[in-house]
Specification:
- The structure holds three protein chains of three kinds.
- By secondary structure, chain A is of the alpha+beta class.
- In chain A, strands 2-1-5-4-3 form a five-stranded antiparallel beta sheet, with helices on both faces.
- In chain A, a hairpin with a 5-residue loop joins β1 and β2.
- In chain B, 43% of the residues lie in helices and 24% in strands.
- In chain B, α1 packs antiparallel against α3.
- In chain C, 57% of the residues lie in helices and 13% in strands.
- By secondary structure, chain C is α+β, with helices and mostly antiparallel strands.
- In chain C, β4 and β5 form a beta hairpin.
- Chain C has two domains: 132 residues, Tetratricopeptide repeat domain (Serine Threonine Protein Phosphatase 5, Tetratricopeptide repeat, Alpha Horseshoe); 110 residues, Beta-Lactamase (2-Layer Sandwich).
- Chain C starts with a helix and ends with a helix.
- Chain C is built from ten helices and five strands.
- Classes of the chains: A alpha+beta, B alpha+beta, C alpha+beta.
- Chains A and B meet through α2 of A and α3 of B.
Chain lengths: 116, 153, 262
């Protein structure tokens, strides 16, 4: 696994409540790089996050409001944060409910910038 | 859906629903179709199954030549369509799944839910039946029985 | 008032057929002397069974006494005798309102108002019932708590859809003003299903919302009820942290509206 990608993911995994961070191929939903806690199913997270991101992209496109930059799926047990990245990749962060969304957003947008 | 083994129906149905696959064939490693679900259209299902089994067999030989472990998954990715082939063991022997999918789903989702399909098939396989061995002498009869069950001929 | 009651009582005693019983009965009713009012009204009705005002008086007293069923019958009789009797129209309208039959209530109250257009109290009642028939728009359902509270989202940026993606309320336009509600609704159903699947399969439980920051706007998808989704669009000058709060506010209004519709 690329050391560069792991370096990108490391700050995300240090957020309070973070359970895993990944770089995923947006089209395939396959893992490109991952940094996960033991009980997190990376392949499932990758596939589902990519699928959701693609659906959201279609909604945004139809709404005529530009392109998505950042997305948060909020649920009772935590969140999935997704940020589109260059080269048809997406950055995914999987967290518990205690993670501060503001901090997650900033770290992810910074990581996407570094990927560019 | 057509299936030779009724216990295959529910897991296969769940897989197609979740994965949005266009067509799924489950077959033995020799290419006998066990179940089929989806939009076959004018596709010659028997030939597709035979070719899929052939591709997996060739890839096993290639892996053996390279002294690698056998390949479990093969993917052919086109612009608008992909084929996913996966070999998995069941109490009835090695089976192969051939999944045809389009742009409304992804390889990741196909893999994710195919893994679940395999788990569900393993759980659903009736244990009281002994795995049937296909003897050469019975092969023709078995094949014809499969064809009749699948296509009502 | 007491002097009037004494005088009217004396007059009625002197002449039992006097129509003064109408004024006396009403005065006793207003003083909550229900038993006395009932005696006067019943005696008057016995003498004047076809007098609309007598039935109207009796109905008012019965209504005050809590006997709404008989009050309805008396006002109904009044209207049979005098179809445009304002008092009976008001009375029945009031009973329909109490029963939650606002459509029928407003019909009768409006008819009464036509007969007595100077009745300001009645005019206000009609307005109130009319408002109840048309629930407030989604964006105005929550009262503003302070002057600096954010302005409600315009209704062409809020879309409420059912589980199948069919628009229920609100509109959505793209930046050029083209209506896109139906297309977005269709996409939202699949997006919501995907969100639910992702949250479920990843062990996060029930999904609650989807916040989307775009290059030209911020979007939010929430679930007011298990069978509906609310999609809201906000300009970028609204902080994204506020987006979720606004969407929740609109979702609460949507829930109330949906309950009222049922």
């Amino acid at each position: 696994m690329s050391r560069t990608y792991l370096t990108l993911l490391d700050p995300l995994t240090r957020l309070v409540g973070a359970r895993g961070a990944m770089i995923v191929s947006a089209e395939d939903g396959l893992v490109v790089a991952e940094f996960l806690m033991e009980n997190v199913k990376g392949s499932a997270l990758a596939a589902l996050a990519a699928s959701l991101a693609n659906r959201v992209a279609r909604v945004v496109e139809t709404s005529g409001r530009g392109a998505p930059r950042f997305m948060q799926l909020q649920a009772k047990g935590g969140s999935v944060f997704v940020a589109p990245a260059p080269a048809d990749l997406i950055l995914v962060l999987f967290t518990g409910p205690e993670t501060a969304a503001g901090a997650a957003r900033l770290e992810m947008l910074q990581a996407v910038e570094r990927m560019g | 859906m057509r299936t030779v083994e009724p216990w295959v129906a529910e897991p296969l149905n769940a897989f197609v629903t979740e994965s949005s696959a266009r067509l799924t064939l489950l077959m033995t490693s020799s290419g006998q179709v066990v179940a089929q679900h989806g939009f076959a259209g004018a596709l010659d299902v028997m030939s597709a199954a035979a070719l899929g089994a052939g591709i997996m067999a060739s890839s096993q030989e290639l892996a053996a030549l390279m002294r690698w472990p056998p390949f479990r998954i093969m993917v052919h990715q086109g612009r608008a369509q992909g084929h996913f082939l996966c070999r998995f063991q069941t109490p009835r022997g090695w089976w192969i799944g051939l999944v045809v999918f389009g742009t409304d789903t992804s390889l990741g989702l196909i893999q994710l839910f195919f893994d679940q399909l395999v788990e569900q098939l393993l759980a659903a396989t009736p244990h009281e039946e002994k795995p049937r061995e296909v003897l050469t002498a019975d092969f023709e009869a078995e094949l014809n029985a499969s064809l009749r069950a699948l296509f009502g001929r | 008032m007491i002097d009037d009651i004494r005088a009217w009582t004396a007059e009625l005693a002197a002449d039992p057929s006097s129509l003064i019983f109408l004024r006396l009965g009403e005065a006793l009713r207003r003083r909550s002397q229900i038993e006395a009012a009932l005696k006067v009204a019943v005696a008057g009705l016995t003498r004047y069974p076809h007098l609309p005002d007598a039935h109207d008086l009796y109905a008012r007293i019965l209504s005050d006494a809590g006997d709404l069923e008989r009050a309805f019958d008396e006002w109904d009789m009044t209207l049979r005798l005098a179809p445009t009797h304002a008092g009976a129209l008001k009375g029945i309208g009031f009973l329909y309102f109490r029963a939650g039959e606002n459509e029928l209530a407003v019909q009768h109250l409006e008819a009464a108002l036509q007969e007595t257009p100077e009745d300001e109290g009645l005019a206000q009642a009609v307005e109130r019932v009319r408002d109840l028939l048309q629930p407030p728009p989604l964006e105005a359902a929550e009262p503003e708590l302070e002057a600096s509270a954010p302005a409600p989202t315009p209704e062409d940026r809020v879309l409420l859809v059912d589980a199948g993606g069919l628009p229920i309320r609100g509109r959505l336009s793209d930046p050029t003003g083209v209506e896109i509600g139906e297309r977005i609704g269709a996409l939202l159903a699949g997006t919501a299903r995907e969100a639910a699947r992702a949250a479920g399969l990843l062990g996060l439980g029930e999904w609650q919302g989807l916040l989307i920051e775009c290059t030209q706007a911020n979007l939010c998808l929430v679930k007011p009820t298990p069978e509906s989704f609310l999609f809201e669009v906000q300009d970028l000058d609204v902080p994204i942290g506020q987006l979720g709060l606004r969407a929740e506010r609109t979702a609460r209004a949507a829930r109330r509206w949906l309950e009222a519709m049922r």
